[in-house]
Structures are given as structure tokens and as C-alpha cells.
């Protein structure tokens, strides 16, 4: 640290002021300071509170200056790439709405409509997360963007699995919300007292339990376990996300998915290595944004979202879907190329 922090300067100024009005030697002053530390701290605290509060809210504080500096660099270096990515996201969002509007009118059975609704709901959520990733990138948070991609990858894998599944699995997937609700309700009641919150009423817990028991009667006890809704395709002991990745041929992203966990969990890897820091900056402590590390979250987001959108496009063999598919590929390639070039030139 080359210069004292702002708060340190304020404290030093206060000490210098006390020293200037003190009549005596430096040694006597030091002794007095030791004796008057509680009183001095009280004076410093009351004097600093207002000025520090104003400083923290000021648009010219150190954090705001840093954010403006990074924002300007990102806009200069990645502005075109972010604009292309926004176009890519817009196209994916339109594919989602077009698919729903077209097939909602043409599907006849309730089962087909429920499957369509389930798939579109997952695709829409994926588009929203991709927009969150765009916002994080545009504001300099590469690690946060990579962490959000982890969720996007999970949705993409589940989407692909559900698309290739029969209605029984779709029904189990939707019914599983009761199992999740039961778990969350019990976890909440276990800690609500310490949080100072009211517990869920017994009547509500009883109703959730009743619905859970109906599902156990319908599917068996195994349904209540993790990923119980995959029981038609995955044997007991192998019902997990890793196996789902294999089923839909997305396990080639397993290493990237594991790597993205560093940005989510509290392990030491997330402390030792950051996308947001260049190789020669890894020893820095970063509490805010930076202007690098965007290539991976952008690239893998484009892969996950394209996988889902292409599934929708292939539901209809028409000139329109073929053109949209080509346009999707063009956007994906341009976004990747632009970010890759900028990342390579980023120093």
C-alpha cells in the first residue's frame, strides 16, 4: 500500500491536531495519548462519523472512482462484444416466445402443452440468467458471471433431458416441487426461532406432508431422494447431475462446470485464483470490478443457450427456423471472436 487509506488519514489528522494543542514533550504526549485513548477514540469517532458517512456516499470516493475507471475500460475494449452479446440474447429470447406461441396453438393434448410449458419455462429462465451474466460482464465481474453460468449449464442439461423424455418424466419433474417444498419447510422451521421469524403453521406443514405422501404412494419412497424425478432413466445410486450430463452428451463441460464452482463455494481455490485478475495480478486482493476475464463466461453462456435454442428451432422444419438457426450461429461466432480478440489484447 503506497498511501494510507482515507480513514487512516482522518485518524492521523485528528492525532496531529491533538498534538498541536498539547503543551509538552513528544514523550509526554505519547504517554497522555495512551492514557486518553478511550476519550480520544470517542472524540475521533464522533468527529469521523459524519464525515466518513458523507465520504462513503460521495460519488468521488475511492470505490466510485475505481468503478468509473473500470467501466470506461470495459466500454472501450468490450463495447462491441457486449453489443453483439445483447443481440445474441435478444435472438434467443425471441426464439423462446415464437416457439411457445406457435406450438401452444397447434398442440392438442394436455400432456403436450404441459411439456411445452415446462421446456419454455426453463428456456426463459436461461435467457434471464444469460442477461444477468451480460450485466455482470458489462460491470466488470467476471467471476460472478462465471458463477451464474454454472446455473445456466444446469438448466441447459435439465432442459435437454426433459426434451428427450416422455410425459411421465415431465410429470415427475413438476411433481418434485412438493418434495423440495417439504424439505425447505422443515429446514425453515428448524432455524426460524433463531432468525426471529414465525414458524410455518402446523396445518400448512400437514398439507405439504399429505401431498408428499401421495407422491410416495404414486412413485415410491425413492422419489423423495435427490434427483428422484430421474428414476425412469437413472438407477439408484447414480441419480445425480453428473449422470444427467452424460445422458444428454454435455459431460464435455464437466471440467468447466467444476471450475465454475470456485466462484460459488467457499473453498480455497476461489481465494487463490480469480478470472477477474490477470496472471500477474493473482496475488492482489480484489473487492470490486476489473476489466478482464470475460471470455469464459461469455463463451460457455453462448454454448449453453444455443444448445437449448437449437432444440426449439429443430421442432419445425421451415425456412424461418433454418434462417434463425444460421443467425444464431453467426451471432455466437461473432461474440466469441470479438471477446477472444479483446481478451488476447488485454494487458
What topology does this entry show?
Elements: H1 6-20, H2 26-35, H3 37-57, H4 62-106, H5 110-138, H6 142-163, H7 167-195, H8 202-219, H9 241-247, H10 254-260, H11 269-272, H12 295-313, H13 319-345
Helix pairs in contact: 4-5, 4-12, 4-13, 5-6, 5-7, 5-12, 6-9, 6-12, 7-8, 12-13
Question: Tags for this entry?
Answer:
single chain; 347 residues; mainly alpha; 3 domains; 13 helices; extended
Describe the structure concisely:
This protein is mostly helical.
Description:
The chain is mainly α. The chain folds into three domains: 6-57, no CATH class; 79-164 and 248-347, no CATH class; 168-239. Helix content is 73%, strand content 0%. It contains 13 helices and no strands. The protein starts with 5 loop residues before the first helix and ends with a helix. The model has no long low-confidence stretch (mean pLDDT 89).
Runs in which pLDDT lies below 50 for 5 or more consecutive residues are: none
Q: So what's the oligomer here?
A: single chain
- Terminal CA distance: 22 Å
Category by helix and strand content: mainly alpha
Q: How much helix, percentage-wise, in residues?
A: over 70%
Q: Approximately how much beta-strand content do the residues carry?
A: under 5%
What is the residue-averaged pLDDT? Answer: 89
- Write down how many β-strands occur, each being a DSSP E stretch of 2 or more residues: 0
What gyration radius follows from the Cα positions, in whole Å?
28 Å
User: What's the number of domains?
Assistant: 3
Total DSSP helices: 13
In this structure, how is the largest beta sheet organized?
A: none
Amino acid at each position: 500500500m503506497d498511501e494510507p487509506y482515507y480513514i487512516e488519514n482522518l485518524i492521523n489528522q485528528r492525532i496531529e491536531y491533538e498534538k498541536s494543542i498539547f503543551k509538552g514533550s513528544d514523550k509526554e504526549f505519547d504517554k497522555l495519548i495512551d492514557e486518553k485513548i478511550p476519550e480520544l477514540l470517542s472524540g475521533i469517532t464522533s468527529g469521523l462519523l459524519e464525515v466518513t458517512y458523507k465520504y462513503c456516499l460521495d460519488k468521488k470516493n475511492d470505490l466510485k472512482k475505481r468503478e468509473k475507471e473500470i467501466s470506461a475500460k470495459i466500454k472501450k475494449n468490450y463495447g462491441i462484444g457486449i453489443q453483439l452479446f445483447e443481440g445474441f440474447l435478444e435472438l434467443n429470447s425471441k426464439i423462446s416466445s415464437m416457439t411457445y406461441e406457435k406450438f401452444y396453438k397447434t398442440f392438442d393434448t394436455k400432456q403436450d402443452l404441459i411439456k411445452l410449458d415446462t421446456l419454455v419455462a426453463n428456456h426463459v429462465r436461461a435467457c434471464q440468467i444469460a442477461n444477468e451474466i451480460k450485466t455482470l460482464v458489462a460491470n466488470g465481474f467476471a467471476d460472478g458471471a462465471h458463477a451464474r453460468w454454472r446455473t445456466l449449464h444446469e438448466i441447459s442439461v435439465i432442459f435437454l433431458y426433459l426434451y428427450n423424455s416422455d410425459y411421465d418424466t415431465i410429470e415427475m419433474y413438476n411433481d418434485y416441487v412438493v418434495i423440495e417444498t417439504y424439505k425447505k419447510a422443515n429446514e425453515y422451521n428448524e432455524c426460524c426461532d433463531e432468525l426471529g421469524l414465525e414458524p410455518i403453521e402446523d396445518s400448512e406443514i400437514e398439507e405439504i406432508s399429505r401431498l408428499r405422501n401421495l407422491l410416495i404412494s404414486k412413485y415410491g419412497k425413492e422419489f423423495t431422494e435427490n434427483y428422484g424425478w430421474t428414476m425412469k432413466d437413472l438407477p439408484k445410486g447414480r441419480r445425480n447431475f453428473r449422470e444427467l450430463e452424460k445422458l444428454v452428451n454435455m459431460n464435455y463441460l464437466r471440467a468447466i462446470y467444476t471450475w465454475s464452482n470456485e466462484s460459488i463455494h467457499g473453498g480455497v481455490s476461489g481465494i487463490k485464483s480469480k478470472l477477474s485478475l490477470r496472471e500477474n495480478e493473482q496475488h492482489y486482493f480484489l473487492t470490486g470490478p476489473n476489466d478482464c476475464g470475460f471470455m469464459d463466461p461469455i463463451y460457455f453462456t453462448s454454448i449453453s443457450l444455443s444448445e437449448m435454442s437449437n432444440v426449439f428451432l429443430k421442432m419445425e422444419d421451415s425456412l424461418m427456423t433454418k434462417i434463425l438457426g444460421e443467425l444464431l450461429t453467426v451471432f455466437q461466432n461473432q461474440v466469441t471472436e470479438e471477446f477472444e480478440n479483446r481478451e488476447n489484447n488485454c494487458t
